[in-house]
């Protein structure tokens, strides 16, 4: 990991909508989201989490209050639901080489990042580019002098089976 200073990017604002007791639309949360690791030089903002699919989206009605699943689940990803996350990458940062058993939609919102696959294939991505990550081993690299920011929607998926072997979640130090 880089020894860059704290992120100069503003915290991510999260607005959550729901329903009042009359069934009318309302805003139930509007906050600057706290980073998962507040002392980290590369903040990760967990924006939403669902433990199942189809998602339960009426807790403010069915339980009398909104249940923010982000605060109840420390897992990296939801195995049978969804995770919505934002990640700030400092200059020179490299993620671990990893695979999650998920279908991920990534949107580069700021800067430039490089997606590198396990055999060295590389794709440079800039703001506005998208990636559909389908359970492959990969790493994210910020090889620039500017901060980058990526949003992810991660959906639980079935493990990939190749030659009788299941490709499961893995994390390794990047090279």
Automatic annotation (TrEMBL):
Q: Which InterPro entries is this protein grouped with?
A: Cupin_2, OryJ/VirC-like, RmlC-like_jellyroll, RmlC_Cupin_sf
Database matches in CDD domains: cupin_BLL6423-like (cd02231)
Where in the numbering of this chain does the Cupin type-2 domain appear? 87-153
Region (Disordered) spans which residues? 1-22
Would you say which domain of life the source belongs to?
Eukaryota
Q: Which Pfam families match?
A: Cupin_2
Q: What is this protein called?
A: Cupin type-2 domain-containing protein
Species in which this protein is naturally found: Mycena rosella (Pink bonnet)
Q: What is the lineage of its organism?
A: Eukaryota, Fungi, Dikarya, Basidiomycota, Agaricomycotina
């Amino acid at each position: 990991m880089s020894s860059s200073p704290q992120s100069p990017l503003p915290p991510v604002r999260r607005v959550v909508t729901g329903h009042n007791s009359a069934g009318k639309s309302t805003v139930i949360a509007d906050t600057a989201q706290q980073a998962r690791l507040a002392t980290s030089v590369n903040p990760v903002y967990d924006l939403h989490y669902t433990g199942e699919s189809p998602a339960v989206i009426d807790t403010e009605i069915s339980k009398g209050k909104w249940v923010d699943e982000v605060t109840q689940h420390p897992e990296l990803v939801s195995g049978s639901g969804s995770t919505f996350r934002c990640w700030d990458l400092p200059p020179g940062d490299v993620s671990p080489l990893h695979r999650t058993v998920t279908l991920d939609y990534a949107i580069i919102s700021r800067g430039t990042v490089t997606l590198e696959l396990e055999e060295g294939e590389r794709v440079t991505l800039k703001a506005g580019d998208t990636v559909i990550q389908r359970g492959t081993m990969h790493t994210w690299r910020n090889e620039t002098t500017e901060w980058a920011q990526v949003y992810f929607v991660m959906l639980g998926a079935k493990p990939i089976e190749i030659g009788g072997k299941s490709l499961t979640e893995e994390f390794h130090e990047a090279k």
